Amino acid sequence: MKKTVFIEGMSCSHCANAVKESLEALDGVDKVKVDLKGKKAVVKGENLDDGEIKKAVSDAGYEVVNITE
Length: 69
Description:
Distance between the termini: 8 Å
Protein name: Copper chaperone
GO molecular function: copper ion binding
CATH architecture: 2-Layer Sandwich
CATH topology: Alpha-Beta Plaits
Largest sheet: 4 strands, antiparallel
Strand order of the largest sheet: 2-3-1-4
Shape: globular
Pfam family, one: HMA
Organism: Acidilutibacter cellobiosedens
Strand content: 35-45%
InterPro entries: Cu-bd (IPR000428), Heavy-metal-associated_CS (IPR017969), HMA_dom (IPR006121), HMA_dom_sf (IPR036163)
Radius of gyration: 10 Å
Number of helices: 2
Mean pLDDT: 97
């Protein structure tokens, strides 16, 4: 399963790393790639829950605008 998470508020590599680490800590996540310029993260794994993804990004200090599969 792959989800693309569109995120507002990331402005530097530190931001991208904070989002990446937060998403990697979720159960079922195998791989995370953050695209700072594209303002998105691609999350790959099993049983990915949109609510948990939003909470992880929010806990890192950023806002999820949209999640697509």
